[in-house]
Amino acid sequence: MAKASNIDLVEAKEISGFSFTRSMRSVCEDLVTRLPELAHVRMSLVAVGFCQARKSVSHGLQASLTPMRFENGDRELFRNGQRWRVQQIRNAENEEVLYLLNFYLPRFQNQPFREKLVTILHELWHISPEFNGDLRRLPGHYYIHSSSEKKYDAAMERLAEKWLALDPPLDEFEFLKMSFDELQRNFGTVRGLRIPVPKMTRCS
User: Fold this and answer.
1) How far apart are CA 96 and CA 98, in angstroms?
2) Per-residue CA distances from 170 to 9, 22, 184 (Å)
3) Separation in Å, CA 44 to CA 69, 94, 110, 124, 139
4) Beta strand 89-90 with 7-8: parallel, antiparallel or unpaired?
5) Which of 42, 66, 78, 180 has a Cα-to-Cα distance from 130 of 20 to 30 A?
6) Considering only CA atoms, which of 126, 167, 119, 150 is closest in space to residue 37?
7) Would you list the domain boundaries of the chain?
8) Tens digits of per-residue pLDDT, 66-91?
9) What's the pTM?
């Protein structure tokens, strides 16, 4: 099978409108800078994009984190007698991106402010402490969220409170307090990076 081409991250250069993904990247960069629990995250190697939610309902997927490598950071996976790789994403500096972080609009933007913070932290926490392209793997069978996603989110709420107590520049992140309709009314257009889901390809 032919090797899939890389996905290059280039945001449209419109002057008008609100860049959702650029603004979300700024929030994530502040979180990983201020919180020692996330100091291992290098946002330059995390692609931030948005997807359109299929249904305009409040429940459902708010955000997702896609690891670009396999367990322990392996580049290849051996399955059913074949070796597989994930199509690479390259940033503006032509570096290999290790994670894809997507937010689902308008659903994410219509959450309350504190819930938005918990959602962001929920996804960033999934990034492996080794920052090797794999997910953080917790002890036990339920290695993604432990045995209780409720406790997982409670831990993220505590991280959100810790970040807020560190006096972040909330005036720069005022958009997080707006609904999607408010963003559109204030800026006219909401734009950003739409990043195709990377494909699995067989190694030659």
Assistant:
1) 6
2) 27, 16, 20
3) 16, 11, 27, 13, 28
4) parallel
5) 78
6) 126
7) 7-202
8) 999 988 888 888 877 788 888 889 99
9) 0.86
